[in-house]
């Protein structure tokens, strides 16, 4: 019956009025009352072959029920098939619930595949090597490269700082402060960097993905050393090596503090017994003044965006200020290959700073270092108080940079 109804709905079969009337008589309760109108089509209620009236096929428009003699609608005949539930909609609902549950389970089930690896479920990074080393990947964005089409030194330094904070968070040591542990927060203590040493073997470029590994070690009785190793995530090539020394400062008094025993108990389990990734630069950083500085840039002021959550200027910002006084010919023809900084004091939002730089030739007896320059730097307040002392080493970008070197020598003369 169902097949007949469906077939007749799409492929109407012509029949004589006599045969149609005989079928209607056998059905008894169903009658067809086609209206005679030229060019109109209607569908019979019983889905039987429509009769011809005046040469046209009359088809009724309802297939769900029929009308009796009194004009009242009667439901279609009850069959086993049309009493069954809509299994397709039930199956679709079950599938939707299953897929949603599977997605939530995959987001929550982030247990490490190996016992020596803890994977961050949010893709920030992972702790490896028995929980002592934190590793994170960074993709070099288009807004992080400079005129040389390579990542800037500030970009690399921001990557180092970001991994240090994420290391503390992944290890469960991140309290309310910027890298402070819970016990440090109770005692109003924060970390401040006192010395930073960086060597850049090669700068990544746009689209490169770098892997930054970082770990911490003890530095004396009241210090902590943090090392970084930056490499190309695909080739494993070492790009940058950095080491730093951090001490604690009271956030309220802004004075250095010893490491309390409660804090030491939090951080010592994460210390590695390893040598620094870079040998210590034992050469003393000289203090520049107006008579020894060859280039001076004045009127540098911090902006609100230069402050971190501890309400002091971010240490990466100091690097940008130091390079403000570097000679333009060096910036154009050379790239920074090494840097040593000593942070002596913090500055506030209302501070006005001066950047001083002097250039000195490197040891030309070594053929490898021919064309390199060393620069001495000082960042100070207007009243002469030292903020940062530094030394940078610059290597030629291209072999044809000899003309720029001559220009640098002429400017110094």
From TrEMBL:
Pfam families: Acyl-ACP_TE, Acyl-ACP_TE_C, Acyl-thio_N. Plays an essential role in chain termination during de novo fatty acid synthesis. Its EC number is 3.1.2.-. This is Acyl-[acyl-carrier-protein] hydrolase. Keywords: Chloroplast, Fatty acid biosynthesis, Fatty acid metabolism, Hydrolase, Lipid biosynthesis, Lipid metabolism, Plastid, Transit peptide. Its main location: plastid. Residues 29-40 have a biased composition (Low complexity). It is found in: Plastid, Chloroplast. Gene3D superfamilies: Hotdog Thioesterase. InterPro entries: Acyl-ACP-thioesterase_N (IPR021113), Acyl-ACP_TE_C (IPR049427), Acyl-ACP_thioesterase_NHD (IPR002864), FATA/B (IPR045023), HotDog_dom_sf (IPR029069). PANTHER family: OLEOYL-ACYL CARRIER PROTEIN THIOESTERASE 1, CHLOROPLASTIC, PALMITOYL-ACYL CARRIER PROTEIN THIOESTERASE, CHLOROPLASTIC. Residues 12-48 are annotated as: Disordered. Belongs to the acyl-ACP thioesterase family. Signal peptide: none annotated. GO terms for molecular function: acyl carrier activity; fatty acyl-[ACP] hydrolase activity. Residues 292-395 form the Acyl-ACP thioesterase-like C-terminal domain. Residues 131-266 form the Acyl-ACP thioesterase N-terminal hotdog domain. It comes from the Eukaryota. Residues 1-120 form the Acyl-ACP-thioesterase N-terminal domain. GO terms for cellular component: chloroplast.
